[in-house]
Write a structure and sequence with these properties.
About 50% of the residues lie in helices and about 15% in strands. With about 300 residues, it is an alpha/beta fold. It starts with a helix and ends with a helix. It binds guanosine-5'-diphosphate. The site of guanosine-5'-diphosphate has 21 residues, from helix 5 and helix 6. It comes from Acidocella aquatica. Part of the signal recognition particle protein translocation system, which is composed of SRP and FtsY. SRP is a ribonucleoprotein composed of Ffh and a 4.5S RNA molecule.
Length: about 300
């Protein structure tokens, strides 16, 4: 929790400072509510969440004198309520051999790192894990996955540069099935500048692995970089149109002054948030705890 709290402290400092400025010895009137709404939007919570929180304040506290502390407590409670329904750990069904996780996300979002962290976590739980280096266009991505595989103790299936990602995914699943692996993590390309090609590629991977297991993939996750703020919201919209996402992982919350984006994502999409990234090391992946997050966010 330390790292997440330290990371979110920048988001919190911004928000808390703003709230203190607006509310010290002041009645909750229209002008104060408007200023609070601006603070919430500046904290990346998004216009819808901001409007909802303001509406709530207006109906319960209008005309009363409120302290910054009260405002923060009310905010934390409200944010916690928005986050609670999406906080769901990713459950691996070990009856599937393997449980197939397809990982999507734009380049740089932390996809490969997150796959490595998940692999390590499942290995620690005693599961047999394999990974497929599906970003076949970027040699660096393949090498990076191999490094993570070595660290986590998981075999990485690769293919020559520029080869077909779907056929690699198919090979990897066939090998994982043969080996009796519990989990197969499939990395994918993140070339968002060519959306149509990326969509075709992701859909083809899914089509092809279904030839070996009709129920696969069992999870389709999108990795998002919190530091990109509202861009993360845009990315969910784009990827949702490409594939049926089943959940999100939000990375880089350790150094981000934009933790509020998680609230905007929760409100807008309602997709499960399975975990949050809090650093570059193998253990820096945390379960998403809505109350803890809400409290850390408002400081
Ligand atoms: P990909 O292109 O989506 O596969 O992204 P990578 O996994 O290569 O990650 C891009 C960069 O972000 C790397 O330098 C990672 O070390 C870094 N990174 C990934 N997750 C986190 C995180 O949770 N916190 C921090 N601080 N850095 C991260």
């Amino acid at each position: 929790f330390g790292r997440l709290k330290a990371g979110l402290s920048r988001s919190a400092a911004k928000l808390t400072g703003g709230i203190a400025e607006v509310f010290t010895k002041r009645k909750l009137d229209d002008a104060a509510l408007e200023e609070l709404e601006e603070q919430l939007i500046a904290a990346d919570l998004g216009p819808t969440v901001a409007a909802r929180i303001i509406k709530n304040f207006r109906s319960t506290r209008f005309g009363k004198e409120v302290s910054p502390q009260e405002v923060r407590e009310t905010l934390a409670a409200e944010i916690g309520r928005i986050l609670a329904p999406v906080a769901k750990p990713l459950e691996v069904d070990t009856a599937k051999k393997p449980f197939v996780i397809l990982m999507a996300g734009v380049n740089g979002a932390g996809k490969t790192t997150t796959i490595g962290k998940l692999a390590a976590r499942y290995r620690q739980a005693g599961l047999m894990v394999m990974m497929a280096a599906g970003d076949t266009f970027r040699a660096a991505a393949v090498e990076q996955l191999q490094v993570w595989g070595a660290r986590a103790g998981a075999e990485v299936v690769t293919a020559p540069a520029n080869s077909d990602a779907a056929s690699l995914a198919h090979d990897a699943l066939a090998r994982a099935q043969k080996a009796g692996a519990d989990v197969l993590l499939i990395d994918t390309a993140g070339r968002l500048h060519n959306k149509t090609a990326l969509m075709e590629e992701l859909r083809k991977i899914i089509r092809v692995i279904r030839k070996l297991d009709e129920s696969a993939p069992h999870a389709v996750l999108l990795t998002l970089d919190a530091t990109t703020g509202q861009n993360a919201v845009t990315q969910v919209g784009i990827f949702k149109d490409m594939v049926d996402l089943t959940g999100l992982i939000v990375t880089k919350l350790d150094g981000s002054a934009r933790g509020g984006i998680v609230v905007a994502l929760a409100e807008k999409f309602g997709l499960p948030i399975h975990a949050v990234g809090t650093g570059e090391q193998i253990d820096d992946l945390r379960a998403f705890d809505p109350e803890e997050f809400a409290r850390a966010l408002v400081g």
